[in-house]
Each structure stands twice: as structure tokens, then as C-alpha cells.
Amino acid sequence: MYKVLTLNNISVAGLEHLPRDQYEVASEINHPDAILLRSFKMHDMEIPASLKAVGRAGAGVNNIPVDKLSGLGIPVFNAPGANANAVKELVLAGMLLASRNICQAWEFTRQIEGGDADLNKQVEAGKKMYAGFELPNRTLGVVGLGAIGRLVADMALNLGMKVIGYDPNITVEGAWKLSSNVQKAASIEEMLPKVDFLTFHVPLVDATKNMINAERIKSMKPEAVILNFARAGIVNDEAVAEALSAAKIHAYVCDFPSNLLKQQKNVITLPHLGASTKEAEDNCAIMVANEIKNYLENGTVQNSVNFPEVAMDKSDGYRISIVNSNVPNMVGQISTAMANAGLNIVDMLNKSKGELAYTLADVDQEIPEKVVEEIAAIDGVLAVRVIG
Question: I want to staple 283 with a disulfide (CB 3.0 to 4.6 A). Which of 82, 142, 150, 152 is the partner?
């Protein structure tokens, strides 16, 4: 029986993928094999010695101590793309709210007093203050061309917009999925002077922190709209506030309110609604529950932020998984330990990612505990587990 600790409410649609005859799932549980969470901050949490995997029902993992877990040989799974449509729709909503000055116009209408005749008169007199602009033939800059960025780009193209994309870390698979109608920018500096809208779909890391700052805003069009539904910190709030006050940009739409921004003219701040749809929550929970299940039961690794992708068909034998530092001669030492115990390796797969390596091996006999202990004692081995 596997034990799964939930640190946030996880969609029932996802938990149903963990069969009750094999999994005990609860918000209070001792010695968990896995943890499922959404926004809970794990950085100050004591990591249970029994823990084998962590799954976040979402894309970002800033609330999870990934480096610490990597050092313990624990994979961190996420759900990239599961909330992509929800974020895409919110980006579209943000573009329309900003381009048509809808929030300001709505507030203007709400403040009108008097009878309907007077209201209609004031509406007709005041509407010219909120004239906006349309999306076709405008240019959208998309920073980050992963699952969300590609959907946003496709949406904009379908609306008759021009799209410029920038992503120095785009994968070959991601590039194949990207529309050929997306212009490629070699740098964010190349993109900025050309765009009417700029949207971000990247994680918050050192390279993306304050990606939009006062210096870069100088090169943008005064009618430009900046949208941030990725992470707080990617856009510098102070720089945006100053630019708006000086009419250097038209509007800022973001999912991360601050006291500086919330009363700022031409700023629309939302309470982190990016993935807040039932469909997105279900999709994220289902994806991450299956990832945890496949890892615990088969050793399979998919959509891990710190482990390599590993999938190997299970043989009729016995399976062992080993997590170790990515240094020379680890596979040799592991194989030798099994050979010395008379275990014949039926199949083996070893892959690495950064400083970690991960090995799955199927052998023809039951794996004695002393072999597990011998492999665990190898310098550089972080975790060893017999599966099934």
C-alpha cells in the first residue's frame, strides 16, 4: 500500500487515478511515499525519510525545494501544459480588457448617478475617453514558447495578429510544434520595439528575473501592453509603474497584485487566476497523479523537473531503480554489485540530467536486501528502490 500526503486540495478527478486498494491518500499521513501539492510552500518543511516522489499539480515549482530533493534522490514532477488553455484564454481576456479600456469604462459607468436619461447622456458624452484599438494586424511578442506560449501564439495568429516569439531554450520537439508563421527573435531586445502586446510564459529563474525593467521599457512603443501571467518578478513592478505614469506604455495586465500596482492607472491586477478553472485543476491533477503512480509502480519518469525522462517496458523479472550523482563508473559499480550476487541483468536503462543520473534495471531473480544495501553504500548513490 502506497501512502500519498496531500498538502493542498487536489482535484478528485486526479485522485481517482490512485486506486484505493493500492493507495492511501490523506492530508494527514505518516511516512508518505509521495506528496501531492499545488501552492503549499515546502521550503521549511521537514522531508520525511520515506518520501520517494513529489508531484505538483501545476507547472511552476518555485514553492518546492528542488535542489534539496535532488540531493536526496527524490524526483519532482509537474504538469506542463495541463493548464495551457486556461492561461491562453486569460491572456486573450487581458488583451481585450487593455485594448478596449474595458475596466476603466466599466468603472466610469458604475459611478454615474441620476436617472436613465441622465445616465444615457453622460454615457454618450464620456465614451470617447475610452476608445480603444482592435487586435488584427497588431503584433504580439511571446516570451517562452512552451505549451502555453505556443497556444497563445496560435490564438493570436487566428485573430489576424502578427506574432514574434523568443525562447533561447526551445526544444526540437517544441520547435516542430510551433507555427511557421511565428517570427523568431534572437533576443528580447530585438523583439521589444516591434510589439504592441508582450506576454510572458517562462519560469522565474535568474535569467528571467526583472526581464522587463526600466531600460528595456525605453525601447517599447508608448501604446504597448505588457501581460504577465507567468510569475511575479519577471516584470519589475516599479519600472512598469513609472512607465505608466509617464505614458511610456499603455497598460499592464498581471496575475500578481501588489500594493504598488493595485491602484495604478491602466493596471489590471488579478488574483492569480491563470490556472483557476475546473478543467485546468482536473487536468493538472490527473497528469501529476499518473506521473506519481507510474514512478512508484514502474520507476518511469515523465515530466520531472530534476530527473531525466526514463521509460522502460517491464520484463517478467524483478526491477530495481538507482538514483546517483552523474559521475563516471556508477553503472559499472552497480552492475558489478548485481553480478557478484549472481543476478543476470535482463534489461537496463541509464540516463542523466544535469548532476543526477537515474538507472532502471530488470534482473532474472529476486533482489536480496544485501544487494540493495551494497548499492546504496556506493559513493555517489542517493537512493535505491526495489520496485514491485
Answer: 82
Non-local (6+) Cβ contacts of 332 within 8 A are none
Alpha helical stretches, state H, the chain: 12-15, 66-71, 84-99, 102-110, 116-126, 147-158, 172-177, 188-191, 214-217, 237-245, 259-262, 278-298, 330-340, 369-376
70 and 127 together in one domain = no
pTM of the model: 0.83
Which tens digits make up the pLDDT trace of 296-325?
Answer: 999 999 999 999 999 999 888 899 999 999
> Which amino acid, one-letter code, is at 277?
T
Report how far residue 161's alpha carbon sits from residue 157's, in angstroms, rounded to the nearest whole number: 5
Q: Per the structure, how many domains does the chain have?
A: 3
> Which of the listed residues 269, 294, 327 is the one where a domain comes to its end?
269
**How far is 139 from 164, CA to CA, in rounded Å?**
7
Report, as an integer, the average pLDDT of 151-169: 97
Say whether both 286 and 361 belong to one domain: no
Residues in CB range of 259: below 8 A, 6 or more apart: none
- Do 253 and 98 form a contact (C-beta atoms < 8 A)? yes
Verify that 228 and 345 share a domain, yes or no. no
Residue 201: closest CA among 235, 171, 241, 225: 235
Provide the pLDDT confidence category of residue 172 given band limits of 50, 70 and 90.
confident
CA trace torsion 249, 254, 260, 263 (10° rounding): 80
> 285: closest CA among 30, 83, 28?
83
